Amino acid sequence: MKKLLLLLVGGLLSAQTSELIGNNWYISKMVTSSGQTTNTPLIDNGVPATTITSAGGLSYVINSKYYNTATMLFSIVPGSNNLMKTAQSFTSLFYNGGNAGPVRNYDQKNIDIYVNGAYASMYNYQITTNGNAKTLVITDPSGNKIYYNNSANLSTQDVKAVKKTFKAYPNPVKEVLTIENIERNLPLKIYDLSGKLVFETKTNDRKISIDTNSLQKGQYILIVENYQSFPFTKE
């Protein structure tokens, strides 16, 4: 009887987690406990995939990605759709690209949902399916909800809005940061993570070099007009 019970519990866990870890998820909107809805703002690099993976045993980890990544380690309560939080972390890059205000606010909400819950607090998840389209809803202990789709679902307008890219290296950089495949005569700026402008110039060729010796060790954001932003680390 005990062995049968263990098999049943294992089967329930397998069914619960297969859809969670078998999909890439993309943030689509957030709904506060008071019912206020915020759709995902357009971001320079496009919305990256959120992943949920096994961390061994009955533990799993979600990397909820927008500009920054909120990471939460959790276990699934057997026979339920409840997630018990066991650890957390998040990245703290500063976004200074297009649509900066809405992107920063939304990014902070993503972090808050996973960081503000206390250790061993309970989250809930629900997955709904409509054909090949799936929606994952995770509810935090305060009743705030974060919605994910299993596809990026970029509209034609969104695709047109995605900016061009350039090549920059090395990253991390010790002395000289080289930038290639860039247009001439464009404003180029570097910001630290507090949003302070620490360097600015104009591009004068398709390939340029920037002396970073005046920068303190840390993380920075390189912004070139009409291009996707580039985060880098100064060693």
Automatic annotation (TrEMBL):
It comes from the Bacteria. Residues 169-228 form the Secretion system C-terminal sorting domain. Pfam families: Por_Secre_tail. Keywords: Signal. This is Secretion system C-terminal sorting domain-containing protein.
